[in-house]
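Protein: ABC transporter permease
Species: Paenibacillus baekrokdamisoli
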Amino acid sequence: MKVKQRKRRNRRFRFYHAVLAIMLIYLFVPMLATLLYALAGTWQTTILPESWTLHWFADLLQDARFGESFLRSLFVCGFSLILGAAVITPAVMIISLEFPRWQKVLSFLALLPYAIPGVVAAVGLLRLYSSGPLPISGTVWLLSAAYVIAIMPYMYQGVRGSLQAFQAGALLEAATLLGANRWRAYRYVLLPNLLPGLTVSMLLSFAVLLGEFVLANLLVGGHYETVQLYLYRRQSESGHLSSAVAFTYFVLVLIVSGVMLQLSKRMFAAPAQVEGPAIMGGAASAMNAQEGRKLG
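Structure follows.
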C-alpha cells in the first residue's frame, strides 16, 4: 500500500511540475524572443542572431521621452490604484457586511465595465466632460477616473473573495462581542486579513492599467504621453527598437510590482501588530465559544 501511495504521489508530483514547466515556457519564451531580437544586429536566415548589439537599448535609454512617459504611466496608474482602493474597498466591505441585500446591485455595477468596450467608454466620457461645470476632457484626471472604472471588476472580485475566504462576518461579530467598536473591528481585524487579496488585486490592476492603450490614446492622446503611446509611436521606426522598448518595459513593471508588494506588506504589518493580535485572539476565542454553544 505504501509503495502504491508513493508511486501516486510521484506521478502527481511529476504532473504538477510538468504543468508548471509548460506554463513557464508559455510565459517566458515570447519575452526571450523579444530580448533576442532587441539584441540582434543582423538576424535573417539563422536560428540565432548573426551579430549582437546594445545599440537599441542605448538609443532607448538616451531618449528622455521614454523615461518621462514611464514616470507618467506610473503616476496615473498609482493614483488610479490609490483612488480605486480608497473608494471600492470600503464600499465592498460595508455593503457586504452591513447591507447584504444590496450585494447583487453592487456586483452588477462592479462587473458592468466588462460589458462596455473601451472605445464606447472613452467617447462617452469625452462628450460628457468636454464642456459643462467640469471640463476635464484631455486631462490626466479624466484618464485616472476612467482607469478607476476599468479596474473596478478586479478590485471587487479580489476584495469580495477575501472577505468570503476568512469569514469576515463571523470575525466582525466576534470582535463586536468582545467590545470593539466598528472602526476598531474593521481596522485591526478585517483589514489585516484583507491585505493579501487586496494586494493581489492591486497588482493585477496595475498590470492591466500599464497595458491599457485605448483609453490613454482616446482620452489624452498627445497631451499626456504614457509609455503605451510612446511604444505605439516608435514601433514604426524599427522592430529592434520596439523589442527593446517592450522588454525594458516588462523589466521595469516587474521591478515596480515587486517593490509595491514589499511596501504593502511593511505598511500594513506594522500597525496590525499593536492591537491586532489581541483582538484576533479574542475573536477566535469568541467564535470557538459560539460553536461550542451550538454543539452543546
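Remarks: The first strand starts at residue 40 and ends at 42.
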